[in-house]
Amino acid sequence: MDATHSPAPGSHVEPGGVRFSIFSEPAERVELCLFDSADDAAEFRRVPLSRAGPGLWTVLLPEEKPGRLYGYRVDGPFDPARGLFCNPNKILIDPYARCLGRAPVWDERLFGHSRLDPAKPDRHDNAPVAPLARVIDPSFDWQGDAPPDIPWERTVLYETHVKSLTARHPGVPENRRGAYLGLATDAVTAHLRELGVTAVQLLPVHQAFDEWHCVKHGLVNYWGYNTLLPFAPDRRFARSSPEDDPVTAFKTMVRGLHRAGLEVILDVVYNHTAEGGVLGPALSCRGLDNPAYYRQDPGHPGAYLDFTGCGNSWNIDHPVARRLVLDSLRYWVRDMHVDGFRFDLATVLGRGGSGFDPGHPFFMEVASDTVLSRVKLIAEPWDLGAGGYRLAGFPSGWSEWNDQYRNVVRRFWRGDAGQVGLFARRISGSADIYGPSGKPPRASINYVTCHDGFTLNDLVSYDHKHNEDNREANRDGTDQNFSMSFGEEGPTLDTEILARRYRQKRNLLATLLVSQGTPMLLGGDELGKTQRGNNNAWCQDNEINWYHWGLDAEQKPFLDFAKKLVRLRQSHPLLQRSRYFTGKKLPGGFRDLCWHHPEGREMEKRDWENAALSTFGMQFFQMEGRTPSSLLILFHADGDRAVDFRLPPLPAGFHWVPLLDTAETEDPRTVQGGYPMEPLSMAVLEARSVDD
User: Fold this and answer.
1) What does the alpha-carbon distance between residue 264 and residue 254 come to, in Å, rounded to a whole number?
2) 504 partner at 20 to 30 Å CA-CA among 181, 194, 415, 563?
3) Would you give the distance in Å from CA 85 to the centre of its chain?
């Protein structure tokens, strides 16, 4: 077969039947194994594949149709010292499979090597326990679906888990709770629209596999950061019965979210796979072509370079592995209609022989691709290898999780000394971080909480993590202590402590929504979600992760406050800037960005250097024709005293009108001269004409 017309990897329905194609360069023989049932593993048919080019094997079966279960046996060298693990006793799943037909069952037969001598292959047949792929029918009625195409400047991300959001929602039918279809119900989309977010950023939905240490403790990899199939939607969210079709369910979910005006961003894991280290199970890529898919130690090919902490790292340098990632991304955009991606441990994607390279071929191919270059691309800009922290190091067009924003905002509101200067840089867009490389403010994905760590409620309620339910003696999860509580949860807390916690939640959320950059909310924070102090709830499929929808007297006002904040952001152009404020003077003598001391003067060098200062104001200003537009945001992180903040002057005929105050004081219609601020509070004021 001509190399220019080589079949695409995977299983594809064609006019003449179903074509099966797989890549394995070291293979000497490849067999397709066809199963009628997931339950009857003893009965399967073997079909030899033919070579269709270097490393590519294929066969067209005219009689086959969608629904067929299949896997592969690869006969070739088993030489762990050279990093080769072919073993014809093991059925391997197609890494291009669009659907998991049967989940693997943890069993010693999943391992390709002998458990007694890893240098030798295991001779036991794994057919009864191996994962199997299912041929899909790709047809679907999208009913005119079109992407919402929300501009970056208007984007508000909502990070959530499919099941967490829907498992206990009273407005979701029981048979759709915890499922893709539950996410697109009117009850859920109404909540998201009323909140004002524009994009749902889903924790991993690629088909995952639970690690053995989870299973033996009766836990699961709930978050799903352990990909088995990067083309297949996880069937956990299609409901429990194997007859449910996860592909159709996922497409239906996307169609429903798009109708509600919401974009769908996927958290994707292309840095490692569920096969783990070299002594892990042989499920797919390791037994097909280990050197093509995994990063090997150049001096010891039998060992992996592990930049992920998960045992292996994807070999993005190899054209076969790189093609798989790019093909997978294109599939999710073109066939599944998603609107963008958040890349877990994204530094792995740019690692070459000499470390991270923003000019890596992977990034170049994404930038030149007509499908991928038009969607939202978000990097978690670090991995666990040497030189892995790459904040602001990703190419133009990419946005990045800004952990510096998170850290500084927490420190400022906790009352740490000397934070005012850094805090001012972060809330004004982190131009010091992203500006030198020519990136706009939207490149900074601002967040205070995310799936990985305390929820907003727990951040202000716990002094220490409480991860005992994870069965690792509370050793897991970050030890970095950003606690902002005023004493641990308990029955002896007085009303003043509870009031301070509540105000801190409002301060943190308000700061996030008025900052320049792209805000990301952790789903459930708007509902007061608690994980009982667990800051690493990755393995908990229970109430620790599920949202609680029965809002009490504290949660309902906080939800209303969150909605008010998002509406404020979405309604004010000064909070949706595509360029940084510069501090330069505009017509009329006002600067587009000005910093104010509570005494009523502009901040000076000595103020920025004053480690004890915890109160200041940030004023945005722009001219719209002849009409000035200005917002003044006041921050007061002192928890012991109130302050009367002297307000800056405005052009004649204008006055300051409060829009919100986290101290929940009654906002007067207008204020003159000074603005009274309670301890631990912030306020947003708008310049309005006296005639309004």
Assistant:
1) 7
2) 194
3) 33
Render pLDDT for 338-358 as a digit per residue (tens, 0 to 9). Answer: 999 999 999 999 999 889 999
Residue 3 CB-half CA count within 13 A: 3
Is the model's pLDDT at 138 over the cut of 90? yes
Where does the pLDDT of residue 4 fall: very low under 50, low under 70, confident under 90, or very high at 90 and above? very low
Residues 347-402: tens digit of each pLDDT: 999 999 889 999 999 999 999 999 999 999 999 999 999 999 999 999 999 999 99
Q: What is the mean pLDDT of residues 136-148?
A: 97
β strands within 454-542, DSSP E: 518-522
| 252 contacts 178 by C-beta, under 8 angstroms | no
Per DSSP (E only), the strands in 511-554 are 518-522
CATH architecture of 3-134: Sandwich (2.60)
Q: Is the pTM of this model over 0.90?
A: yes
- DSSP alpha helices (H): ranges in 92-185? 162-166, 180-183
Tens digit of pLDDT for each residue in 499-517? 899 999 999 999 999 999 9
Please say whether the dihedral angle defined by the alpha carbons of residues 92, 96, 101 and 103, taken in this order, is positive or negative: positive
Helix H or strand E segment including 619? strand 615-624
Q: Which residues belong to CATH 2.60.40.10 in the chain?
A: 3-134
The C-alpha atoms of residue 426 and residue 409 are separated, in whole angstroms, by: 8
Residue positions annotated with a catalytic role: 344, 380
Helix, strand or coil, per DSSP, at residue 330: helix
- What is the per-residue DSSP string for 246-280? HHHHHHHHHHHHHHTT-EEEEEE--S--TT-STTS
| CB-CB neighbours of 218 under 10 Å | 8
DSSP letter string, 469-489: GGSSTT--S--------SS-S
Where in the chain do CATH 2.60.40.1180 domains reside?
581-689
Amino acid 76: pLDDT: 98
